[in-house]
Amino acid sequence: MMNELLIQNIEKSLQLSKPELEQLCSYFEPKVIQKKEFLLTQGSVCKFEGFVLEGCFRVFILDKKGKENTLYFAIKDWWLMDIDSFMNQNPSNLNIQALEDSKILLINRKDKLTLYDTIPATEKLFRIMSQKAIVAWQRRLINNHCQTAKERYHDFAETYPNIVSKLTDKQIASYLGITHEFLSKIKKSSKGL
């Protein structure tokens, strides 16, 4: 069954014929994930690449002290995975958790590699997606080094208003690399602006 949201996402990067789209979509398995359920846990191997249909996911690591450090969030129309674990089949350092009841389409590594052989254009599609992800990571890294915490918060809130509304202050603070208390001060000082 073809999923319209997945097709729209694909067609932003690549034009495929209807039979190719049908074949590509046939490799994705739908899955419902309940709020607080983990799609991936640290130490397990990431066996999927996912496309979010509904809901919100948080990708985070636990440091040696047990502190959560959020790397990114994924909402409707976003891709989700641990690329290192998925590509190299080694244990993941990441946790992927649903922040609300969610629906996702998953493709496994074997099927993705089969797609590369049967529909060669899909390799271009996933390359483009990887490049976009690298750009996003680079921008985030630059912002973390060049912006104040207040600037990072405002940039995040402006860029991703649909995500901010779904998150707790603790989750946002974890993403920004600041304490919950410091985020509260930033938000309080911003109300007068």
Q: Please, could you describe this protein's structure?
A:
This is Crp/Fnr-type transcriptional regulator. InterPro entries: cNMP-bd_dom, cNMP-bd_dom_sf, RmlC-like_jellyroll. Pfam families: cNMP_binding (PF00027). Residues 31-116 form the Cyclic nucleotide-binding domain. This protein has a four-stranded antiparallel beta sheet. It is built from nine helices and eight strands. The mean pLDDT is 92. With 193 residues, it is an alpha+beta fold. The protein has a domain at 4-120: Sandwich (Jelly Rolls), CATH 2.60.120.10. A hairpin with a 5-residue loop joins strand 4 and strand 5.
What keyword list fits this structure?
193 residues; alpha+beta; Jelly Rolls; 4-stranded antiparallel β-sheet; Crp/Fnr-type transcriptional regulator
Blueprint of the fold:
Elements: H1 4-11, H2 18-26, E1 29-33, E2 38-40, E3 48-54, E4 56-62, E5 68-75, E6 79-80, H3 83-88, E7 95-98, E8 102-108, H4 109-118, H5 121-146, H6 149-159, H7 161-164, H8 169-176, H9 180-190
Antiparallel strand pairs: 1-8, 2-7, 3-6, 3-8, 4-5, 4-7
Helix pairs in contact: 8-9
